[in-house]
Design brief:
Radius of gyration: 26 Å
Number of strands: 0
């Protein structure tokens, strides 16, 4: 589980509660179910006007990924690539066909299958880069829906405030109720701002970061596959792939993959 996302939610909520209580307010003053329905429900149902039904319904599963730490297996990829490169130089490219189905990374598996089939390096790069670009495009479609939701939320918050003010102005006879009614009307604006800046905006950015990490891993796979296809020295290939890793991971496997 990604503790950072939990900290974001709990920490942000704690700061809101602290601000309310230290300013002399009460939690009851900022909790209003009609305002929640207007802001959260209204902005969510707007998504059905811009995205297919399956995207709107499946969006919560995508948001759930913000609560998990992704593991793209960069360390294992480098080790596998070096081992496969050594095998190819020792036994020939066709020897790689045995064991391809055991590879857990489908992107690597499809690239190596092209190598075994004798495909030209430029064609392999074009196919793998196109597949990588299509994967990224699908990721960005989901992220864009969350970004759009973050944009709709403040607007619905403002609409809720306007509706509250209209109701208040229609009952101006009771002067003592003007203040409380105004406070309730403004709560929807607060909810819209909180949704955009505390929840949806950060989640979209986290998923964007996940995407960039995955694309970097796929770039590393492409470099490894092309190095094997070109018959490159395994040690040279390992040095190339290690540049994609963070210093801690690199140090952990450097001695193993650069062995003589």
């Amino acid at each position: 589980m990604d503790i950072a996302t939990i900290i974001c939610i709990i920490g942000g909520a704690a700061m809101v509660v602290l601000s309310v209580l230290t300013s002399g307010g009460t939690m009851g003053g900022i909790i209003d179910l009609p305002s929640i329905a207007m802001t959260v429900g209204g902005s969510y149902f707007c998504l059905f006007g811009l995205a297919p039904l399956n995207r709107c319904i499946g969006l919560f599963g995508i948001i759930g990924r913000c609560f998990r730490i992704p593991d793209f297996g960069e360390k294992q990829i480098v080790q596998n690539m070096v081992a496969l490169s050594e095998k190819a130089r020792r036994e020939g490219i066709l020897a790689l066909e045995d064991g391809l189905d055991d590879l857990s990374d489908s992107f690597m598996r499809s690239g190596l299958r092209l190598v075994v089939d004798g495909t030209d390096g430029a064609v392999i790069r074009a196919i793998m880069e196109n597949e990588m670009n299509q994967i990224e495009a699908r990721h960005l479609e989901w992220i864009n829906i969350i970004v759009q939701w973050a944009g709709f939320a403040p607007g619905f918050g403002m609409m809720g405030t306007v509706l509250g003010l209209i109701g208040m102005l229609r009952n101006m006879e009771d002067k003592s109720a003007i203040g409380p009614n105004m406070a309730v009307a403004l709560v929807t604006t607060l909810y819209g701002a909180m949704m955009a800046n505390w929840l949806l905006g950060p989640w979209a950015q986290k998923l964007t970061w996940h995407n960039s990490m995955e694309m970097k891993t796929k770039e590393m796979v492409i470099e490894g596959v092309l190095a094997i296809q070109a018959g490159e020295n395994p040690r040279i290939m390992a040095q190339k792939l290690l540049t994609y890793l963070d210093p801690v991971t690199r140090k952990a496997i450097e001695a193993d993959v650069l062995k003589d």
